[in-house]
Design brief:
mainly alpha; 5 helices
Length: 85
């Protein structure tokens, strides 16, 4: 993966990146990449790919046949039994 080094970064930009990174639970480097992806419009392609992947997965799950024994399980009964332990 290529390395990007930025020299003489204005303090205002660095502080803003640091604040965003902290808020998003990222490192400053990760936040810089995420910000650049947003500005350059690259994250839209990533979002579209993730949506397509989730849609496909959702369709596969809906197409799965659930065994009769599983469908007849009484979830509420199990939860109550667990709570009463």
């Amino acid at each position: 993966m290529p390395l990007l080094q930025v020299r003489n970064c204005p303090e205002k930009i660095y502080k803003k990146l640091a604040e965003e990174a902290k808020r998003e639970h990222r490192t400053i480097a990760q936040q810089t990449v995420a910000t650049l992806e947003t500005i350059l419009g690259l994250n839209e392609a990533i979002i579209a790919a993730n949506k397509a992947r989730r849609k496909l997965l959702s369709e596969r799950v809906r197409a799965m046949e659930i065994p009769k024994a599983v469908r007849e399980v009484d979830d509420v009964k199990w939860i109550r039994e667990d709570r009463n332990r």
